[in-house]
Amino acid sequence: MEQLNYNIASTVAPRGVFGLSIGVVNSGNLEILLLQNADNLSAKFIIDTSVAGYSEIWHAVLSDFAAKFAIGGLEFILHDSGATPAIVALRLRQAYETYLIASANKHITNSHYVELTPRERIMALVDESSFKEILPPAAQVTSPHLGQLDLLTSFDDGVVIGDAKFDGKEIAIIAQQANFIGGAVGEINGAKIAGMCLRALERKVSGVILLLDSGGVRLQEANAGEIAISEIIRSIFALRLNNIPVVAVVAGKNGAFGGIGITAACADNLFISEQGRSGVSGPEVIETVMGVDEYDSKDRALVWRTCGGKHRALLGLSEYCVPEIDKLHHQIKDALDHPVTLTLDGLRADNLRLAQLVTKYANYHDALDIWHDLGVSNPEQVSNLSDAKFQQLQQSLAE
User: What is the pTM of this model?
Assistant: First the structure.
């Protein structure tokens, strides 16, 4: 990697909010953190880039930005993963506009959960202006391992945590960033999640909400990540034993796999949307180990039939949710208002039910056969059913 440093003259910037970040460290993209610079007549830029040898182009793009906008007194820290000049200019302007309008507190109007960033998901679900982030991007608490491997870090290490109010009740809320290393858990990332759960236990909040979107543990931090997963699971059960409900939502593009798939199953309530998926092993892992003839990870219909939200809901392994903010809010509220009591007898009953499912369907090779056995008259149509039609199907099977 290469680090570039620039101080470029510009007029004094209007007053705004420091410490906000935009973008994501991902291929062809970049993340920007905006801080205060001591010199009001110049803007400071610190760039960590995975593509070396473009210092003149960087200087040209930044100089053009400083000439067009009043950014004196601002410091921009950029983590670049090969973004083009056009993307750099776009992200710089987004960061500047975020600084000016203090978007961390603005009302979210987009109702589609999948399209929102982790912070936007949190702010769309909780009471307006109630979210108080802990260890925000400005704290720059990042992975100590990725840099040693010459890999870029993220300012929040891929997870957002904080206190908030949900319908007037104090809660803790956690949201994963799917686009940073697939939402995977490392040492700092996992410590933030486990620490937030323990903080919630100490504060005796009304509930903990986990917005999960992860492929599991980071391969680059495997041992630390696995330890973190065990600490997260232990903290979840500590919450439940103290009658603090834990609600997990899997409605993002990555789903919940590996250790996070296990974590999701430990919550009082697990909501998975049609777009969501969950399991211990991801499709690519199964294909690698068992072969493409056994499981073709590129067969999207097969993947969703195997680990998607509809299949898991029909088996009674999770609750089906609609990824629209108002409907999701209602389901989470109902779950927090009616927590599941954690008992040894309850765990035994759950384990017995899971064992019965494994025994009954061990020789089935497709979810279509399982759905037919469950009483679905036209299993081939399940994947094409709208949310409303699928919920009607669930109701008819329950009756």
Answer: 0.88
**Which pLDDT belongs to residue 108?**
59
Tell me if 256 sits within 8 A of 250, measured CB to CB: yes
Q: In the chain, how long is the greatest CA-to-CA distance?
A: 72
Q: Which residue type occupies 285?
A: V
- Alpha carbon distance 16, 71 (integer Å): 11
Amino acid at 349: A
pLDDT at position 115 is: 87
Give the C-alpha separation, 304 to 324, whole Å. Answer: 20
Task: Find out whether 251 and 114 touch, Cβ atoms under 8 Å.
Answer: yes
What ranges do the domains of the chain cover? Answer: 2-104, 110-273+321-342
Quick check: 294 and 271 in contact, CB under 8 A? Answer: no
Could you please state the CATH topology (level 3) that the domain comprising 110-273+321-342 is classified under: 2-enoyl-CoA Hydratase; Chain A, domain 1 (3.90.226)
pLDDT on residue 282: 85
Positions in the chain short of pLDDT 50? 103-104
Q: How far apart are CA 244 and CA 328, in angstroms?
A: 20
Count Cβ neighbours within 10 Å for each residue of 129-143 and write b for 16 or more, e otherwise: ebbebebbbbebbbb
List % helix, strand, coil for the chain (3-state, nearest 5).
45, 20, 35
| Six-digit token string for 286 | 């199964």
Tell which CATH classification among 1.10.260, 1.10.20, 3.30.230, 1.20.1070 matches the domain 2-104: 3.30.230
Structure tokens at 303: 């993947």
Contact 336, 245 (CB under 8 A): yes
